[in-house]
């Protein structure tokens, strides 16, 4: 035990050191390359930088090599803990190097397309080459058959895939948003090169991130990984995050369309302010959600179920927030506030959230459908708990504001209802959600109770050898679990069998719970009720 | 819970096609759009256009000529590294007989970076009609000229 702990600790220290040295080496290498590329004009600033670059390259470089020579011998027959530490360290370095080098290369390409080859291109090239080298080396070591970690072997590619997926989605949102803004919300340019480079730069990002993602997804075969971790990462980012984006964007889009008040200029203004962002997020979220939704088929049913529950949770949260806003707006219309502009805006947002939330909640939660109670226990408890906490906070805010008005010298212009309507809306919505889930959870628990093993009666029979006949007669009794413990007495005569069975059945009829029955040599039973 | 029904592949392809189409459409629309026209020199917007162009190309004499009492004024932004890359868009124009306020947005290019939004600022140009010509009385700090007193050169 202690040697295992010691070896795990040693692995932790060695791999931690290796990671630190690799990160230093990456920094030093990229600095050195960018210094080499820029004109060798020496001034004080550059001298300092050059000294840093040299120190960060020349000192960690040989140390990494020596440390790796030492570590790799131990990797050949490593214990599970050490293998897990190796996988974590390698994945962390790979991910960091991938993030730095990929953003640098995309930024470089984007600025090239903009025509304004910037003053910082040497830095970008340095980052790409330096960190690219570190990432490639780490990736090669992680995938060399000799050194593949036995635990978490696919962690690095799974994380790389997740990063590329998020980057591709984000770039697509930016590119679509730029395109929509250019087409539908054009601005009068006075001076400047125009928006085309910005659009093309965003397209470069989309293409680069997609290639990176496809490389992980198809070439490195993350798509084919079926272990629970890989599936969960795909589900959380590809389905849950994409669904969250798509649903919120759908609500924002509806918010633009709903004609409240009936005024098309206001609608146009709303579109100009957040229309492009909402529509681009809606498109991107829908694309990624649909694709990964199909990819969930054939994975563990647990992943599918959790993904459904997350989406139903997101839509329910939207539904509840929307309800809160609608209540808020209704109260506002009663209390006649001074600014007439807020109430319609709040009402519009509330209605949009309620519509989107209801549609997807009904689709994914299926309130009327019969479901296996066991599968949604955690979900119900979670929702009941979270909404209860939010309701409590809202209640505290309502209470605080009421007391504030009662105790303090509140200005008479302040309307009580107007002052508390926002938290009141929240309170009503979350209390509703909490009560609904509590009721569901309770009814599910009642359905589960008959299945509990405690409901069965148990008879523990202590009887000598040869009592099989007695046992087979008892086992026909409904809802009775019989256990036989063999005693050391001589076997009971066979002709007593019926009488003994009758005596046992009689005792079971008079006692309601489980029983311990000990048979003595004369065929008499000693009964003890069990808890 | 029941299993997820796999949605039609067609819908996915349609969405991707819509996205690609939007981007291509935007690229075409933007390339066909003419370059920002140089407006008349006797309008406030035309004066601002000429001033910004002169300022960005470090043509101090022209810039000075468009500013009220501009003869002795100097460029006071030594530390602005991206002077030339700013893009200026017209947001609002409020012009009367004698004065004009023009609201513009000044955006600096981000050198291909996507993860940070381009830095954008809304600023006002104030102009006044002096001897029949529009002259700038106040310019945004990013591209303004200062007197020697403001620069702290003479006490």
Description:
- The complex is a heterodimer of chains A (531) and B (155).
- With 531 residues, chain A is mainly alpha-helical.
- Chain A has helices at residues 2-37, 44-58, 60-75, 80-113, 121-143, 155-184, 196-219, 228-257, 264-295, 301-335, 342-365, 377-407, 416-448, 468-474, 497-510; strands at residues 188-191, 457-463, 480-486, 514-519, 525-530.
- Chain A folds into 3 domains: 1-149; 301-451, no CATH class; 456-530, Alpha-D-Glucose-1,6-Bisphosphate, Chain A, domain 3 (3-Layer(aba) Sandwich).
- In chain A, helix 1 (2-37) packs antiparallel against helix 3, helix 6 (155-184) runs antiparallel to helix 7 and helix 6 packs antiparallel against helix 9.
- Chain B has a domain at 44-151: Roll (Nuclear Transport Factor 2, Chain: A), CATH 3.10.450.
- Chain B is 30% helix and 26% strand.
- Chain B has helices at residues 9-32, 44-56, 60-65, 148-151; strands at residues 74-75, 86-95, 99-108, 120-130, 133-138, 145-146.
- The radius of gyration of chain B is 23 Å and the shape is elongated.
- The termini of chain B are far apart.
- Chains A and B meet through helix 4, helix 6, strand 1, helix 7 and helix 9 of A and helix 1, helix 2, strand 2 and strand 3 of B.
């Amino acid at each position: 035990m202690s040697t295992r702990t010691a070896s795990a600790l040693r692995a932790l220290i060695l791999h931690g050191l290796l990671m630190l040295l690799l990160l230093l080496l990456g920094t030093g290498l990229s600095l050195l390359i960018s210094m080499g590329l820029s004109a060798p004009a020496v001034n004080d600033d550059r001298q300092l930088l050059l000294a840093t670059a040299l120190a960060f390259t020349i000192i960690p470089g040989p140390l990494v090599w020596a440390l790796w020579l030492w570590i790799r011998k131990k990797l050949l027959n490593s214990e599970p803990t050490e293998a897990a530490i190796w996988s974590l360290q390698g994945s962390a370095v790979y991910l960091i190097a991938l993030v730095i080098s990929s953003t640098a290369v995309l930024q470089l390409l984007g600025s090239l397309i903009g025509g304004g080859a910037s003053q910082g291109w040497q830095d970008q090239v340095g980052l790409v080459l330096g960190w690219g080298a570190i990432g490639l080396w780490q990736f090669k070591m992680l995938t060399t058959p000799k050194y593949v970690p036995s635990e978490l072997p696919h962690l690095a590619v799974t994380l790389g895939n997740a990063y590329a997926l998020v980057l591709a989605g984000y770039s697509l949102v930016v590119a679509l948003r730029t395109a929509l803004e250019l087409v539908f919300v054009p601005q009068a340019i006075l001076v400047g090169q125009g928006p085309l480079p910005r659009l093309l730069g965003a397209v470069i990002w989309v293409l680069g991130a997609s290639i990176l993602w496809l490389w992980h997804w198809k070439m490195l075969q993350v798509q084919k990984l079926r272990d629970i971790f890989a599936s969960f990462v795909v589900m959380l980012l590809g389905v849950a995050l994409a669904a969250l984006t798509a649903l919120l964007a759908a609500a924002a889009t509806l918010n633009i369309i709903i004609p409240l008040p009936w005024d098309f200029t206001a609608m146009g203004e709303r579109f100009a302010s957040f229309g492009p962002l909402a529509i681009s997020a809606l498109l991107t979220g829908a694309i990624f959600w649909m694709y990964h939704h199909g990819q969930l088929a054939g994975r563990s049913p647990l992943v599918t179920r959790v993904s459904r529950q997350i989406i139903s949770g997101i839509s329910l949260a939207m539904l509840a927030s929307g309800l809160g806003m609608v209540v808020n707006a209704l109260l506002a219309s009663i209390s006649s506030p001074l600014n007439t502009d807020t109430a319609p805006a709040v009402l519009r947002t509330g209605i949009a959230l309620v519509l989107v939330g209801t549609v997807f909640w009904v689709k994914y939660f299926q309130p009327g459908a019969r479901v296996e109670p066991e599968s949604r226990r955690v979900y119900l408890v979670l929702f009941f708990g979270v909404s209860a906490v939010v309701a409590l906070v809202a209640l505290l805010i309502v209470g605080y504001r009421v007391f504030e008005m009662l105790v303090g010298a509140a200005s008479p212009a302040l309307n009580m209802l107007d002052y508390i309507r926002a938290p009141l809306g929240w309170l009503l919505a979350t209390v509703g959600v909490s009560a609904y889930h509590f009721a569901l959870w309770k009814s599910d628990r009642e359905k589960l109770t008959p299945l509990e093993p405690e409901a069965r009666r148990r008879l523990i029979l202590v009887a000598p050898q040869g009592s099989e006949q007695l046992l087979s007669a008892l086992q026909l009794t409904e809802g009775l679990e019989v256990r036989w413990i063999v005693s050391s007495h001589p076997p009971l005569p066979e002709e007593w069998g019926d009488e003994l069975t009758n005596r046992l059945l009689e005792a079971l009829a008079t006692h309601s719970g489980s029983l311990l029955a000990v048979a003595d040599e004369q065929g008499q039973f000693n009964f003890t009720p069990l808890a | 819970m029941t299993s997820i029904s796999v949605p039609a592949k067609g819908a996915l392809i349609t969405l991707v096609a819509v996205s690609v189409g939007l981007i291509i459409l935007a690229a075409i629309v933007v390339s066909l759009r003419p370059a920002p026209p140089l407006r008349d020199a006797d309008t406030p917007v035309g004066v601002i256009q000429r001033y910004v162009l002169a300022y960005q190309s470090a043509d101090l004499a022209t810039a000075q000529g468009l500013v009220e009492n501009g003869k002795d004024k100097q460029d006071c932004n030594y530390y602005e590294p991206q002077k030339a890359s700013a893009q200026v868009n017209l947001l609002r124009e409020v012009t009367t007989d004698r004065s004009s306020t023009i609201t513009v947005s000044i955006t600096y290019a981000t050198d291909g970076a996507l993860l940070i939004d381009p830095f954008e600022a809304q600023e006002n140009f104030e102009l006044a009609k002096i001897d029949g010509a529009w002259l700038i009385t106040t310019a945004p700090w990013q591209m303004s000229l200062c007197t020697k007193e403001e620069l702290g050169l003479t006490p």
